[in-house]
Amino acid sequence: MNILLFGPPGSGKGTQSVLLVEQHGMKHISTGDLFRNAIKRSTSLGLEAKKYMDQGQLVPDTIVVGMVEEAFEGLKGKSFVLDGFPRTVPQAE
Length: 93
Fold this sequence. Notes:
This protein is an alpha/beta fold. It has five helices and three strands; from the N terminus they run βαβαααβα. 53% of the residues lie in helices and 13% in strands. It has a three-stranded parallel β-sheet. The protein starts with a strand and ends with a helix.
């Protein structure tokens, strides 16, 4: 079972994700966490994202999708909760 959670900031996506992870043993994938971890580890996508974030700009869809795709590696056959993705129509495509 895989679940996508959508909603505006502060709507409880993170809270619901935690409950689902605890109750069903699912992997939690949060785009915010992906950004923070990629920047902290100085990955190529993280460094690209940081350039936009430091300027107060939205991170391009190609970078966001790349981070999510990396997170999916190794998840075949595992259940997950995806929190905060997609945010745009191009990301969903």
